[in-house]
Fold each of these.
Amino acid sequence: MIVSRIPLEPNRNQGLFGKLQGWVMRRRYGAALQPVLAASHQPQVLRTISLMEAGVARWNRLDTTLKSLATTAAAVALNCPWCLDFGYWENHRKGVDLRKLREVPNWRDSDVFTDLERKVMAYAEAMTQLPVEVTDEQVAELRARLGDAALVELTAMVAVENQRSRTNLALGLTSQGFKDRCDVPRAR
């Protein structure tokens, strides 16, 4: 059941850009994405977010798995059902280990993560807290292990995920069933 706080029908006055975006979404994801439908009510916001996301998709200094674990940890910390659902599906498509994605909520107690992966998720959680709880020690260790470019990308990815999650939560966006498309059914 969708409990959106804003209509999730496309804005009919969004013009050619909106129509093209609708076509791309259906082709790429098999459905119209709720955040895009919500943003379509303000075409300038939709265009700006679309351009930002297109740029974010080209970032390549941080390992894909680390990036996925960081954004998932931020979405878990904020408890964003839409982000967790779509993120699981998207990261599955990128080849990220599904065991790791499933264990992110319990990363402190799980044995599937490396030391670096744990430090990345701790950093993502610290960034997501209000006030931000990032320490000098966290930054120094990640900087030594990742390098400056990857650290900056990690920080920006967590910030982007915070924007996504907080927007989706405020607008009441929920799971769209993306995760169900890639989960392996359990044996009976």
Amino acid sequence: MSGNIWRSLRSFISPLFPASYRWPAMDVRLGDRYLHLVGSIHMGTRDMQPLPARLLRQLQQADALIVEADITQGGSPFDHRGDRPALSTRLESHAMDTLIALCQEMNLSLSLFDHLPAWQVALMLQAQQAQMLGLRPDYGIDYQLLQVAKGLNKPVIELEGADAQIALLTALPDDGMALLQDTLQHWHTNARLLQMMVSWWMDTPPRQPDITLPVTFSQALNETLIGQRNAQWCHRLQALAAGNYVVAVGALHLYGQDNLPEMLKRP
């Protein structure tokens, strides 16, 4: 590839990784589209409110806010009926022992989960774990950004929407059993990962996307929940009209393997 063609490509898709942001974020230019990619946490601590003034100015100057889904409206992933066989017949004995121990630790009744889809049990356990670590949905970054954007009458663009997210979960093989097994197996690692992401907002955000993250998903689940969705979002972002956008997606989508910024850099 000649130097002129390479320089032309770099000017069309140009990543900018400023060292000055106090939150996990990076800027990407796609021709005449400017994206401020924000690594969101869906549940946050009280200290994460209000959002940094500089980020709020970015949003005020943006043409639209882009999120995975508008979580201020739409259905809940916890509305599915509990008509499955008992978990003891679906989970291996060691995983069942772990679940029983966690229920005792969190003072939860196993009957809450017993007949639910496995993916729903996993999400409920993850939400309970986040609450035990002091995280609340009202302090989540995307929730706060959505509230501010609506107060400013900014357009909100969904990358997939809540219905698509629920459809993805319900389409997981074996009722999402792999997600539940990974949740149980990597319980303590996931807690450390949540604490790491909080520290990105409170203390030291990473400067580059290619960092090593703790493993909390199997390779197959990581491809389904991270890699494939990042590829779909990449196409959506590349198809945007000219403009300036704030893009808030889960922090795990911006860092580590198959991250969104690296996909956007590819010609």
